[in-house]
Amino acid sequence: METTTRLILPEVIEALGTDPQELAELTEELHPADLADLASALEPELAKKLLVVLPVEVGARLLENLDEERRGELFAALATADLQRAAAITDEMAADDRADLYATIGEELRAELLKAMDEEESRDVRQLLSYPEGSAGSLMTTDYVALPANVTAQRAIELIRETAADKETIYQAYAVDQNGTLLGVVSLRDLVVSPADRTISEIMEPNIVSVQAEDDQEEVARIIAKYDLLALPVVDRHHRIAGIITIDDAIDVVEEEATEDVQKMGAVEPLEQAYISTPFRELVRARAPWLVVLFVAVMATRNVLEHYSAHAAVMLMWFVPLIGASGGNSGSQSATLVIRALAVGRLEPNQAGRVLLRELAVGLTLGGILALFGMASTMVWESSRMAGMVLTIGCALICVVTVGALLGSGIPLLLHRLGIDPAVASTPFITSLVDIAGLILYFEIAGLFLA
Amino acid sequence: METTTRLILPEVIEALGTDPQELAELTEELHPADLADLASALEPELAKKLLVVLPVEVGARLLENLDEERRGELFAALATADLQRAAAITDEMAADDRADLYATIGEELRAELLKAMDEEESRDVRQLLSYPEGSAGSLMTTDYVALPANVTAQRAIELIRETAADKETIYQAYAVDQNGTLLGVVSLRDLVVSPADRTISEIMEPNIVSVQAEDDQEEVARIIAKYDLLALPVVDRHHRIAGIITIDDAIDVVEEEATEDVQKMGAVEPLEQAYISTPFRELVRARAPWLVVLFVAVMATRNVLEHYSAHAAVMLMWFVPLIGASGGNSGSQSATLVIRALAVGRLEPNQAGRVLLRELAVGLTLGGILALFGMASTMVWESSRMAGMVLTIGCALICVVTVGALLGSGIPLLLHRLGIDPAVASTPFITSLVDIAGLILYFEIAGLFLA
User: Fold this and answer.
1) H or E segment at A56?
2) E strand or H helix at B182, and its extent?
3) In terms of domains, do B122 and B176 share one?
4) How far apart are CA A251 and CA B11, in angstroms?
5) What is the pLDDT of residue A388?
6) Do B18 and B166 share a domain, yes or no?
């Protein structure tokens, strides 16, 4: 929360109880995003009261800027108390935010609200609701500017002026024919700069980047970022325009996708809500399966140790965690670098060979560095008499760090090649694999030097 | 690379050798971002040739869309061969991209290019170059629209039309007084919609969100995303406007910052370049210090094991990696969730107590689940006779998983409280701490049940 918002919070709470007039003054100059912060910090009952007291249009802006989970709760509470007002507020909301809101409320309430809307708008909402979460369709809004291709720049600006109030953006307008087929895109910049009598078809850019409603939101964000677009049109199979996705939604997607990737890399099923508002059950559900899978995988280490400990010196056992951690850390580093590079599209599949060669070299170098530390400390601890032990630790470190680097980079690359999201090769998963491989290597090397 | 770009690559390479005219036709319809992809895929010598053959303005767009590292190399090669052309291309570049480019080339070349520019523009570049990397100043452009507050909407649109070609965006204009003090912001949307004779001071929004040139780019991106801004003004101490940062730069920052956080969390010093173009030395430098630090930290496990193994049953040693991994994985999960929530500003410092309580509960639950698996498998392996062993494994798993959850969440929260970036509490770091604590707990518990 911004500091200014935090400072007026107590006054807002007081005004809510006593003086709605003062409340209007307090909140008048707040940006809707700050107003949403304020509502989030209030008790549910007070937040609901705020929505009742504020002008309908301000309430709509507030809801547009609220977290999805809190928005659903707050709106459901309002609708239960005052359905008329709830319907009036959604009338004022942007089409995409309204559809998102409707997706999070109960079916009964949704049906009631849809019944209260006029036919065309209700069809619009139903259409937007039909796209799966995470698709281009679920991000888009139908409030875009469409223009006939044969009007002049001057006429186009007039048309835009007349309808601007209802549009998500007027900075990009889309030239369409009578079937709604997308012919080109023209920016308000081009319209303003071009001579008044030029037609849209002369000004427009006919080479348009577009997506389909089923495309993934990650792809949408990638395209918007790559081509520096303010808005990206969504078309159907017949290249008819269905909606647009604006860059402010793309920025949220980039952050959301990064969060999902980070969570997967930490062996957590991506959470649907913010961590702090995720219910306890949900947290356990997102974490337990991975912990169990990893536990079962690492169980193999017990058998490896049982097998080798029959013959090995006790001293060898003392170094087991150190060897395992070194390989695991190296693997985590490689996996982190490769998974992220793949996620941001900075690594092409045909570079896999080059990556593995480099990781081999990096692994050997890093392993060599650790080996120096490991051998030096072994000499100190084991009072230098046991040359075999010193050599075992040195060789084992070089091997496990290199194996870590190779598995950490190779497994994500393999998953990517197979069309599986490489982020599922979480760092704990890589660590577990390296643990098992590392132990076997360690004892085999010890067998050579300490036989 | 987009498929279409990949498809014309061979033709472009051929045309570069034989037929510049065909080249112009091939590349004419390409978006500058695709052209940049193309240049990235070419051998350096051919890429340089492409810049020589393309029109100067197209070359400028190409450079604007190229990776920083490749841009610097390509431009330096061009400047060595043809300084005139290199200077002409930078003349056409956006002010912010040009300054970024100048920051990556050698000092001598930069001095030569600055000498060739006119006085005012050269001062402008020097100013932009003076801001440290990662600051708002380093992201901003000086190509913004400033308007006197007393002109009418109609006049303002005329003024914008006249200067549009040189501006980064014309969709936000900034009302300033004769000293350059920022008075308000007005969007082209407001200008187009409002009656022609209204003055800017009547239309503009006087409550402006702005940043200072020294502010961090992460804060810039947060503000742009939060308030859905197309551009954010940068002001000096006297509230005079110095430049603007556009949303397309913010989207790159969000991705860049997420990458840095991911790398830190994987115990890698953030790389300056893309993974694949990072030199070998740089990769080792980014990874070796952390590996060594973690190695030294985990060394403690050797002493812990030496201490306990004197009295403990050999069988206890077999479970060391399993116990360590379970605690480490739980810690990785907690650290991932908390670090990311802090990074995206979805966790407030005053929620630390609530987080720790929840992690305690989650840790106990997850530990309980793993304990069931652990005890069941111990009964199978150790043929159920040793009740003490089964109890040891069960209790140890509950304890280490809980300790993992508490350390994994608590350490990032503590670092955040101390003003240190919580992402430095990498998952390998958490894993190492949990390893040591977990081993001690495990053997102490064993002492109770197996005494």
Assistant:
1) helix A56-64
2) strand B182-187
3) no
4) 36
5) 87
6) no
Q: State whether residue B448 sits within 8 Å of chain A by CB.
A: no
Q: How many whole angstroms separate alpha carbon A130 and alpha carbon B424? A: 42
- Are the C-beta atoms of residues A339 and A427 closer than 8 Å to each other? no
State the Cα–Cα distance between residues B389 and B266, nearest whole angstrom. Answer: 35
Q: Which of A130, A154, A173 is the last residue of a domain?
A: A130
- CATH code, domain carrying B157: 3.10.580.10
**Shortest Cα distance, chain A CAs vs residue B71, angstroms:** 15
d(CA B376, CA B380): 7
Question: Please, which residues 128-187 of chain A have a Cβ atom closer than 8 Å to chain B?
Answer: 157, 160-161, 164-165, 170-171
Is A332 close to B267, i.e. CB distance below 8 A? yes
Same domain, A347 and A403: yes
Place of tokens 């190509």: B143
pLDDT, block means (10 residues), chain A with 451 residues: 82 82 81 91 89 91 90 91 90 90 89 86 89 93 94 94 91 95 95 93 94 94 93 95 95 91 91 88 93 91 88 86 94 94 86 95 96 89 74 95 96 93 88 93 91 67
**Chain A to chain B Cβ contacts (< 8 Å):** 341
Count of the separate structural domains present in chain B: 3
Q: Per the domain annotation, does B262 fall within a domain?
A: no
pLDDT one-digit tens code per residue, A397-417: 999 999 999 999 999 999 999
A418 and A296 inside one domain: yes
Taking the Cβ of residue A307 and every Cβ of chain B, the question of whether any pair is shorter than 8 Å is answered with no
User: What are the b/e assignments for A227-260, b being 16+ CB within 10 Å?
Assistant: ebbbbbbbbeeebebbbbbbbbbbbebbbbbbbb
Position A266 in a domain: no
Q: What's the CA dihedral at B253, B259, B264, B270 to 10 degrees?
A: -80
**CATH number, position A41:** 1.25.60.10
Question: Taking the model in full, what pTM does it have?
Answer: 0.87
The answer to whether residue B273 sits within a structural domain is: no
